[in-house]
Amino acid sequence: MLSTVISRAMTTSAVRSSYPALSRFSSCELSDALIKLGLPHGGHIPDIHMMSPSDPTTRICGPAYTVKMVLASDDAAPKLDKHFVDEATPNSVIVIDAPPQAKSAVWGGLMSAGAIARGCLGVVISGRARDISESIDSDFPVFGRSHSTLGQSPFTRPSQINIPLTIHAQPADSSFPSTSVDPGDIIVADRDGVVCVPKDLVEKTLAQAAKGQEIDAKCMEDIRAGKGVKESFKKWRGK
Fold first, then answer.
1. Which of 6, 54, 146, 152 is the most exposed place for a label (fewest CB within 10 A)?
2. What is the per-residue pLDDT for 2?
3. pLDDT tens-digit map of 6-50
4. CA torsion through residues 128, 8, 23, 53, sign
5. Cβ(185)–Cβ(199) under 8 Å?
């Protein structure tokens, strides 16, 4: 069993991880592995990009702490007694699912400060963020779909924490399959994108990713030697 606890002081500026074995693979390598394991979306949460920090080599890897946002007008949805950042698990990656129609941000500089104080590794937002410069100055990883000048109130509010999320590709009519994120699933995010590794597939994903990484290294060696992409793929990938 992989350890899920690591001190924030033990992370580097580029890799912040509570699963070192997984964080040595890129999001692309992990998606390839998950496709091989039968996940039609490869764990990919599409159209989410790194917004902070400024170091493009940043990678975060840790268990998901999930947050469901709703429109402020939704009186039927549950309400939280405490701020969701104050309840965040140390060494986790906060994953927020916001209403797709919301044009306001659900994350800002003050929340980045709070997440740092809680020892979180970063935040992944299916939605918008603001105060990007503050997060960059704080060196806190923020991944989101877009940005906004507007804050949460009076547009959206947090409703539930640590529940399973189903994050849909946008726009709503996209044919790309939705991605499920359960609390404790491992989130890996870097400049290529965001991947969710189901917690019950971690060991199989590690084995498959290591195999893929080795094959791609051999392909790269042959391609650089001038042996051609097609022939290199056929030799090492079998196609």
1. 54
2. 36
3. 333 334 448 999 889 999 999 999 999 999 999 999 999 999 999
4. positive
5. yes
The torsion region of residue 66 among left (phi > 0), alpha (psi -120 to 50) and beta comes to beta
In the three-class reduction of DSSP (H, G, I as helix; E, B as strand; rest coil), residue 68 is classed as: strand
How does pLDDT run across 152-166, given as a tens digit for each residue? Answer: 999 999 999 999 999
Task: Report the distance separating Cα 43 and Cα 31, nearest Å.
Answer: 6
First to last CA, the chain: 35
- Report the distance separating Cα 118 and Cα 96, nearest Å: 16
Query: Hey, what amino acid is at 218?
Result: K
CB 95 within 8 A of CB 67: yes
Q: Are 102 and 155 in contact (CB under 8 A)?
A: yes
Q: One-letter amino acid identity for 178?
A: S
What are the angstrom distances between the C-alpha of 151 and each of 71, 104, 159, 238? 13, 6, 16, 51
> Strand pairing of 179-181 and 165-167?
antiparallel
Here the tokens at position 4 are 């899920």
SS3 121: coil
Cite the DSSP H helix spans in the chain: 20-23, 27-36, 109-118, 132-137, 202-224, 229-236
Rounded CA separation 108/132 (Å): 7
Which residues, 6+ apart, have CB-to-CB distance to 198 below 8 Å? 39, 43, 180, 182, 185
The two tokens of residue 7 are 């001190």
Tokens of 132: 């990007």
